[in-house]
C-alpha cells in the first residue's frame, strides 16, 4: 500500500466513513478499490496511479491530484460525485456501435441526453429508477 493509499483511507474515514461496503487491496499493482454494492451493481473508487478514479457500469472518470495538499479536497469532490450517482442526481448514458461501446458519459437527471440515431443509447441510474434503451435506427428508418 502506498502513502497515497494510506492517506486516502484515513481521509475516507473522516469524510465518508460509512459509504463503502468493502475495500480491496491490489498488491500487484499497488492500489486500493473502495466498493459500494447495490444488488448486482458495483461502484468503485480506485487509487490507481495516485489519482481517484470512479467506475460505474460502462462509465469512469478521473479526479487527479496535483499535490499532497490538495488530495483531501479532490477526494471530497470525488465522494460528492459518487453521492450524486447513488442518489440518482447523475445518470449514465452509454452509446453503442452495434454491440460495442462507443463511449459513455454522465449527465444530470434533468438533462436530456444527446441521441445519435445511428447508435444504440442506454440510460441508467444506480437504482434503475431511470432506465431506458433507445435502439439505433437502421438505415435512417
Number of spatially distinct domains: 2
Radius of gyration: 17 Å
Mean pLDDT: 91
Q: What is the strand arrangement across the widest sheet?
A: 1-2-3-4-5
Number of strands: 9
Helical coverage, percent range: 10-25%
Distance between the termini: 54 Å
Q: What is the count of DSSP helices, taking H or I runs of 4+ residues?
A: 2
Order of helices and strands: HEEEEEHEEEE
Shape: elongated
Describe this structure in words.
21% of the residues lie in helices and 40% in strands. With 141 residues, the chain is α+β, with helices and mostly antiparallel strands. It folds into 2 domains: 3-86; 90-140, no CATH class. The strands form 2 sheets. It has a 5-stranded antiparallel sheet with strand order 1-2-3-4-5, covered by helices on one side. A 4-stranded antiparallel sheet has the order 7-6-8-9. Helix 1 packs across helix 2.
Give a short overview:
This protein has 141 residues and is α+β, with helices and mostly antiparallel strands.
Keywords:
141 residues, alpha+beta, 2 domains, 4-stranded antiparallel β-sheet, 9 strands, elongated
Amino acid at each position: 500500500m502506498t502513502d497515497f493509499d494510506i492517506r486516502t483511507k484515513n481521509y475516507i474515514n473522516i469524510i465518508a466513513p460509512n459509504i463503502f461496503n468493502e475495500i480491496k487491496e491490489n498488491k500487484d499493482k499497488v492500489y486500493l478499490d473502495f466498493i459500494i454494492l447495490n444488488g448486482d451493481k458495483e461502484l468503485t473508487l480506485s487509487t490507481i496511479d495516485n489519482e481517484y478514479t470512479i467506475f460505474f457500469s460502462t462509465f469512469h472518470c478521473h479526479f487527479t491530484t496535483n499535490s499532497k495538499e490538495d488530495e483531501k479536497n479532490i477526494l471530497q469532490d470525488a465522494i460528492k460525485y459518487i453521492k450524486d450517482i447513488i442518489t440518482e442526481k447523475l445518470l449514465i448514458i452509454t452509446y453503442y456501435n452495434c454491440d460495442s461501446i462507443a463511449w459513455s458519459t454522465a449527465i444530470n437527471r434533468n438533462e436530456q441526453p444527446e441521441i445519435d440515431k445511428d447508435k444504440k443509447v442506454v440510460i441508467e441510474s444506480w437504482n434503475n429508477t431511470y432506465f431506458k434503451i433507445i435502439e439505433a435506427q437502421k438505415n435512417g428508418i
